[in-house]
Amino acid sequence: MEIKVLGPGCPTCKTLENLVVQAVKEIGINVKIEKITDIVTIMKHTFSTPALVINGKLRFAGKPLPTLEKVKKLLKEEA
Q: What is the pLDDT averaged over residues 45-72?
């Protein structure tokens, strides 16, 4: 599974990254989490940040942030 957290590095983007890390730990899966801050790369997926891309699919973008349970659900759907 490939997970990308897209965002320029704002506090909200960092919060989403932390949610993803926590969800991965709680589910117990071994995945690579990549943080993408390059705006050109981000715009290939979405114009709204923060965003979450799982296995090449945009699964979340914008605000409000998803809950930890929602992030875990998204990860399990792609596993």
A: 96
Spatial strand order in the sheet of 57-61: 32-36, 2-6, 51-54, 57-61
Which residues have C-beta within 8 Å of that of residue 12, sequence separation ≥ 6?
Answer: 49, 50, 63, 65
Element (H, E) at 43: helix 39-43
- What's the CA angle centered on 35, arms 1 and 41, to 5 degrees? 95
Closest C-alpha to 57, from 19, 23, 6, 20: 6
* Domains of the chain in sequence order: 2-78 (3.40.30.10)
Q: What is the pLDDT of residues 9-55, one digit of tens each?
A: 999 999 999 999 999 999 999 899 999 999 999 999 999 999 999 99
Catalytic residues: 10, 13
By three-state DSSP, how is residue 75 classified? Answer: helix
